[in-house]
Amino acid sequence: MDMTDITARGLVILGCGKMGSAMLEGWLAGGLAPQSVTVLDPTPSDFLTSTGCRLNAALPERPALVLLAVKPQIMQDALAQVTHYGGGEVPVLTVAAGLPIRYYERAFGAGTPVIRAMPNTPSAVKRGITAIVGNEGGTGYLDLAEELLSAVGQVVRLESEAQMRTVTGISGCGPAYVFHMVEALTEAGVREGLSEEVAGQLARATISGAGALLDSSDESAAQLRTNVTSPNGVTEVALRTLMEELPDLMHRTVMAAIKRDEELSK
Ligand SMILES: NC(=O)C1=CN([C@@H]2O[C@H](COP(=O)(O)OP(=O)(O)OC[C@H]3O[C@@H](n4cnc5c(N)ncnc54)[C@H](OP(=O)(O)O)[C@@H]3O)[C@@H](O)[C@H]2O)C=CC1
Ligand SMILES: O=C(O)[C@@H]1CCC=N1
């Protein structure tokens, strides 16, 4: 990533909890100078304090970017600290679920370049995926946003803001679905006779190993599944149970996320 502009003008992060810190961790590991980052957060974590970033310090006059990473429910109150950047010269990148671009246009004023992004927490280990979409003014900053966000994983550009709800339900929330699968697999192992420790180790290594294989292989997920499934063997029978219910369950899960995202937008 070319950090020249960010190093020279600075990056402001409003709210740096789980998601903000995941991205910041990836950027710092990629070489971003901590002194160029000003974080506004009422209760900085031990991680933040250890980074050397400027915490709750005076704001730079014209930062290269303002990142909004507070919860949508407190966005309104928190924004007052940075709305003076509105008007055109400073792009605003928000990762908040729900809130539409027009919300920020109202808060920062017309002409403010706004980019909406939906990242996920694997950004902390540079394995995130972030979807981005901008308003008219933000279009010129999509390259900058992509450059920054690709330092912590993959980036996809959306055709329309309306697609952001589905993205949130798939990849924004998705890591939680996968972590829950580890929990569920562990629980099944315990119920069928393993110790919590061994079941947990098996489940965790299986999910992360399958993820690594998926990442490094050219084969489709369906083919990788087939590779495990011996004809008339154990997996084939096991999958009958899982595949009967999981697609519909996953769809309902994503629909629940979309519905909540919609509620948060109001
Ligand atoms: N977590 C995730 O996987 C993802 C989250 N997001 C989005 O990221 C945003 C943040 O989520 P997440 O990181 O999980 O939430 P967190 O609560 O972990 O982070 C929000 C941070 O903002 C701080 N904060 C609270 N009030 C203010 C304020 N007035 N000014 C500045 N900072 C403030 C909080 O401090 P305190 O804890 O003291 O209240 C906290 O450190 C949300 O909008 C969410 O939709 C998007 C994609 C994925
Ligand atoms: O749960 C949330 O609201 C946020 C958005 C996507 C992931 N976490």
From TrEMBL:
Pfam families the UniProt entry points to: F420_oxidored, P5CR_dimer
UniProt domain Pyrroline-5-carboxylate reductase dimerisation: residue ranges: 161-264
Subcellular localization(s) per the UniProt record: Cytoplasm
Pathway recorded for this protein: Amino-acid biosynthesis; L-proline biosynthesis; L-proline from L-glutamate 5-semialdehyde: step 1/1
Catalytic activity: L-proline + NADP(+) = (S)-1-pyrroline-5-carboxylate + NADPH + 2 H(+); L-proline + NAD(+) = (S)-1-pyrroline-5-carboxylate + NADH + 2 H(+)
Coarse class of the protein's main subcellular location: cytoplasm
Highest rank taxon of the organism: Bacteria
Family the UniProt entry places it in: Belongs to the pyrroline-5-carboxylate reductase family.
Function, as annotated: Catalyzes the reduction of 1-pyrroline-5-carboxylate (PCA) to L-proline.
NCBIfam families registered for this protein in UniProt: proC
Protein name per its UniProtKB record: Pyrroline-5-carboxylate reductase
